[in-house]
Amino acid sequence: MAENCHGTLDSNKAVGNYAGMPIKMKLGELVNARDTLTKVSATKLPVKSSYWIARKLKTLSSELGTFDEKRNELIRELGAPDEKNPNSVVVKPENIQEYFKRLTEVLDIEVALEMVPFRLADLEGCELTPLEVSTLGGLIEEPALQAV
After folding, report:
1. What is the pLDDT of residues 54-80, one digit of tens each?
2. Cβ atoms of residues 2 and 91 within 8 Å
3. Cα(103)–Cα(75) distance, rounded to whole angstroms?
4. What CA–CA distance (Å, rounded) separates 58 from 44?
5. Helices (H), the chain
6. DSSP calls for 3-22
7. Inter-CA distances, 95 with 80, 86, 99, 123, 136, Å
8. For residue 41, what are the contacts with CB-CB under 8 A and spacing of at least 6?
9. What is residue 19's predicted lDDT score, i.e. its pLDDT?
Protein backbone atom coordinates (compact mmCIF):
# COMPACT_ATOMS: atom_id res chain seq x y z
CA MET A 1 0.00 0.00 0.00
CA ALA A 2 1.32 3.46 -0.85
CA GLU A 3 1.00 6.69 1.06
CA ASN A 4 -1.36 9.30 -0.31
CA CYS A 5 -0.65 13.05 -0.30
CA HIS A 6 -1.72 13.33 3.34
CA GLY A 7 0.71 10.66 4.54
CA THR A 8 -1.91 8.03 5.33
CA LEU A 9 -2.26 4.58 3.84
CA ASP A 10 -5.21 4.09 1.56
CA SER A 11 -5.94 1.08 -0.64
CA ASN A 12 -8.76 3.03 -2.30
CA LYS A 13 -6.20 5.26 -4.04
CA ALA A 14 -6.34 3.19 -7.24
CA VAL A 15 -10.02 3.94 -7.87
CA GLY A 16 -9.44 7.09 -9.96
CA ASN A 17 -7.07 5.34 -12.35
CA TYR A 18 -8.25 1.80 -11.85
CA ALA A 19 -5.48 -0.61 -12.77
CA GLY A 20 -6.34 -3.70 -10.72
CA MET A 21 -8.21 -6.86 -11.44
CA PRO A 22 -11.92 -6.25 -11.98
CA ILE A 23 -14.40 -7.72 -9.51
CA LYS A 24 -16.22 -10.49 -11.37
CA MET A 25 -19.64 -11.53 -10.18
CA LYS A 26 -23.05 -12.53 -11.48
CA LEU A 27 -25.42 -9.65 -12.10
CA GLY A 28 -27.91 -11.39 -9.80
CA GLU A 29 -25.45 -11.12 -6.91
CA LEU A 30 -25.17 -7.39 -7.52
CA VAL A 31 -28.97 -7.05 -7.69
CA ASN A 32 -29.22 -8.94 -4.37
CA ALA A 33 -26.79 -6.42 -2.83
CA ARG A 34 -28.90 -3.43 -3.94
CA ASP A 35 -30.82 -2.96 -0.66
CA THR A 36 -27.65 -3.14 1.42
CA LEU A 37 -25.89 -0.71 -0.92
CA THR A 38 -28.85 1.67 -0.58
CA LYS A 39 -28.61 1.41 3.21
CA VAL A 40 -24.86 2.07 3.10
CA SER A 41 -25.35 5.10 0.83
CA ALA A 42 -27.87 6.59 3.29
CA THR A 43 -25.57 6.20 6.31
CA LYS A 44 -23.74 9.24 7.63
CA LEU A 45 -20.04 8.35 7.65
CA PRO A 46 -16.74 10.20 7.98
CA VAL A 47 -16.07 12.29 4.88
CA LYS A 48 -13.22 10.11 3.59
CA SER A 49 -15.29 6.92 3.81
CA SER A 50 -18.29 8.69 2.28
CA TYR A 51 -16.19 9.83 -0.67
CA TRP A 52 -14.82 6.38 -1.49
CA ILE A 53 -18.16 4.68 -1.00
CA ALA A 54 -19.82 7.26 -3.29
CA ARG A 55 -17.21 6.55 -5.99
CA LYS A 56 -17.84 2.81 -5.74
CA LEU A 57 -21.61 3.24 -5.69
CA LYS A 58 -21.40 5.27 -8.90
CA THR A 59 -19.81 2.27 -10.66
CA LEU A 60 -22.37 -0.12 -9.18
CA SER A 61 -25.30 2.17 -10.02
CA SER A 62 -24.33 2.07 -13.67
CA GLU A 63 -24.56 -1.74 -13.78
CA LEU A 64 -27.80 -1.76 -11.78
CA GLY A 65 -29.29 0.89 -14.07
CA THR A 66 -28.53 -1.23 -17.12
CA PHE A 67 -30.19 -4.21 -15.42
CA ASP A 68 -33.29 -2.13 -14.59
CA GLU A 69 -33.55 -1.00 -18.22
CA LYS A 70 -33.37 -4.61 -19.48
CA ARG A 71 -35.90 -5.82 -16.89
CA ASN A 72 -38.31 -3.02 -17.84
CA GLU A 73 -37.83 -3.85 -21.52
CA LEU A 74 -38.82 -7.47 -20.79
CA ILE A 75 -41.89 -6.33 -18.85
CA ARG A 76 -42.99 -4.09 -21.74
CA GLU A 77 -42.38 -6.86 -24.27
CA LEU A 78 -44.20 -9.56 -22.31
CA GLY A 79 -46.74 -7.37 -20.58
CA ALA A 80 -49.85 -5.30 -20.99
CA PRO A 81 -51.26 -2.23 -19.24
CA ASP A 82 -52.42 -3.00 -15.70
CA GLU A 83 -56.23 -2.97 -15.48
CA LYS A 84 -56.08 -1.20 -12.08
CA ASN A 85 -53.45 1.33 -13.18
CA PRO A 86 -53.31 1.98 -16.95
CA ASN A 87 -50.04 3.92 -16.51
CA SER A 88 -48.36 0.73 -15.34
CA VAL A 89 -47.42 -2.39 -17.31
CA VAL A 90 -47.50 -5.89 -15.83
CA VAL A 91 -46.37 -9.20 -17.28
CA LYS A 92 -49.29 -11.12 -18.76
CA PRO A 93 -50.07 -14.31 -16.80
CA GLU A 94 -49.42 -16.45 -19.88
CA ASN A 95 -45.94 -14.90 -20.18
CA ILE A 96 -44.79 -15.26 -16.55
CA GLN A 97 -42.68 -18.37 -17.21
CA GLU A 98 -41.01 -16.79 -20.24
CA TYR A 99 -40.38 -13.59 -18.27
CA PHE A 100 -38.66 -15.42 -15.42
CA LYS A 101 -36.70 -17.60 -17.85
CA ARG A 102 -35.34 -14.54 -19.66
CA LEU A 103 -34.82 -12.54 -16.47
CA THR A 104 -32.83 -15.44 -15.02
CA GLU A 105 -30.63 -15.41 -18.14
CA VAL A 106 -29.92 -11.71 -17.52
CA LEU A 107 -29.25 -12.26 -13.81
CA ASP A 108 -26.79 -15.03 -14.73
CA ILE A 109 -24.60 -12.66 -16.78
CA GLU A 110 -21.12 -12.23 -15.33
CA VAL A 111 -20.14 -8.59 -14.94
CA ALA A 112 -16.65 -7.18 -14.41
CA LEU A 113 -16.69 -4.19 -12.09
CA GLU A 114 -13.75 -1.83 -12.56
CA MET A 115 -13.38 -0.82 -8.93
CA VAL A 116 -11.46 -1.55 -5.77
CA PRO A 117 -13.52 -3.82 -3.49
CA PHE A 118 -15.02 -2.50 -0.28
CA ARG A 119 -13.05 -3.14 2.87
CA LEU A 120 -14.84 -3.71 6.16
CA ALA A 121 -13.10 -0.56 7.39
CA ASP A 122 -14.91 1.37 4.62
CA LEU A 123 -18.19 0.33 6.20
CA GLU A 124 -17.32 1.33 9.79
CA GLY A 125 -20.31 3.18 11.17
CA CYS A 126 -22.83 1.29 9.04
CA GLU A 127 -25.05 -0.90 11.14
CA LEU A 128 -25.45 -3.99 8.98
CA THR A 129 -26.78 -7.40 9.87
CA PRO A 130 -24.72 -10.49 9.02
CA LEU A 131 -27.24 -11.19 6.24
CA GLU A 132 -26.74 -7.71 4.78
CA VAL A 133 -22.96 -8.11 4.89
CA SER A 134 -23.31 -11.48 3.15
CA THR A 135 -25.21 -9.85 0.26
CA LEU A 136 -22.10 -7.75 -0.40
CA GLY A 137 -20.13 -11.00 -0.85
CA GLY A 138 -17.77 -10.49 -3.76
CA LEU A 139 -17.78 -6.71 -3.30
CA ILE A 140 -15.83 -7.04 -0.04
CA GLU A 141 -12.19 -7.98 0.15
CA GLU A 142 -10.32 -8.47 3.37
CA PRO A 143 -6.75 -9.62 3.82
CA ALA A 144 -6.59 -13.20 4.99
CA LEU A 145 -6.20 -13.58 8.71
CA GLN A 146 -2.89 -15.12 9.62
CA ALA A 147 -2.68 -17.94 12.13
CA VAL A 148 -0.78 -17.13 15.30
Report:
1. 888 988 999 999 999 999 999 999 999
2. no
3. 10
4. 17
5. 27-32, 34-41, 47-78, 96-107, 130-136
6. B-TTS-B-GGGGGTT--SPP
7. 10, 19, 6, 41, 32
8. 53, 54, 57
9. 56
Maximum Cα–Cα distance for the chain, whole Å?
A: 65
Separation of alpha carbons 59 and 120, rounded Å: 19
124 φ, ψ (degrees, to nearest 5):
-55, 130
Euclidean distance between CA atoms 20 and 24, whole angstroms: 12
pTM: 0.76
Q: What pLDDT, in 10s, does the model give residues 1-35?
A: 332 322 233 444 444 445 578 899 999 999 999 99
Residue 35: the pLDDT is 93
Enumerate residues 6+ apart whose C-beta is below 8 A from 74.
91, 99, 102, 103, 106
